[in-house]
Amino acid sequence: MKSAFFLLLPLAALAAEPALEFEPVVRDSAWRLSIGLRAAPGIKTSAAVDARAAVAAAGGALRPSGRGGSSTSGAGSSVSTKTEDLGSTTEGTTEKQARDAVAWSEDRMRWEFANGDYINLDDGADPLREGETQNWHFENAGDFADGAIQIRTPYDATTTSRTRTTKTETSGASSASRSVSLREEWGDGLRDSSDETAPGIELRLDRTVWENEDFGIDIGIGYAWYDDVDAFSVRGRAYSAVATEKRTASGSRVTTTDITTETTESGTVVTSIAQPEFTDPDDYVNDDGSMGGGVEDVYDPRLPTGWKMPVLTVSSDRFSTTSERNPTEISSVSASTVSESGAVGPARTTSSTRTTRRTVDVRSEGTLSLQELRLGVSPFWKANPRLAVRADLGLLATYSEIETTTRLSVDGAPAAAIRKDDDDWTLGGYAGLSLAAAATDRLEFSLGAEARFPHKRLRFDDGVVSGSVELAEWSAFASVGWRF
Hints:
mainly beta, 24 strands, 6% helix
């Protein structure tokens, strides 16, 4: 603020020189209505995800029954089962293969879709523009909807799996044991911080209550509305767990069953490429109903009449891929053989293992909205009839609203959504300097800056994400005023 004061003094001194020969401004009215732009930089936000709270909101952590280990023995009989994977073969295109073909990849230069649709990052530009291309084409412009290009890639595959299940039954002395192990990983470092500037529009009404040849005093009120600030965005994995259950048993009667299972999976992989820049169909839709004007000969493109060559932005944050799965069809055939090793005492030992997994992912975003009311006094010094230096002092009431949206998913599927608004009024003060130049008897332009005090900190918490926002310590404005 001191530096702003020293910058204004030379301007005032220049304006006071007689050589400038300003025409006097006749102040025939004491009111002044001003409208202008105000910017409040240095809005600092920090937010962090509570991983355990996120897991609780998503349904809880993985808790397999019978954690630890146990064993049983007796003179009766016991049964244990062991299953071996003998391998599998797949015919057709699986969901993973379809997804890998159309999903985002950092090293990929070209994507090929159904019906000859494609995107090629090599459009002949020298050098190539990272993340942009004009070499792309889709046969149906209707694939663009809701601000994104929607590409549907069908898949259909049949997987034949072969397993062998060994069932061991004991008689006489027998024993069996069971153990469970759990490995958990909790998300660490799920946080974000930002330092943003809030731009806004300000309306002020001032009145001159006292004035002489060199000095004067104004009092006034003002209202400022700021554009929303993207305060934070946190996303990542809050929880990952793997539970392994192992059973062992001994016995004398062994039944071996070979099972052949055919599993048919089918559905559609939907790839969405956001293009919010496409607002007017005349900019990207060709006369034949297609969109995109790219041709394979990227060094010498010859477009058909009525085609356009819009720029397509391709980056990881523009891509999203989901799957629409049809019901899975499963059929199996089994054949069994039996062998015995004696009536009493364990003849062989078998074991089986079962694994269960669980993941919880979180995505949270926050938006800050600000409004201000001010009441103050402005002593001023007139360097000459057309130039004045003002000091601004007064009270500042700030209304803030922080809106948070947190989405949780379990094993990749949506599980919960949390939305919360935290709002508050804070009262403080401001002090600053401004320079006012009169263009006519009624029209003047102002430019200045101010400091706010005390420094305000706001807190928010939606149960999963919490943090704080530090409001701006100073602001600057430029306005045009009309006296009446």
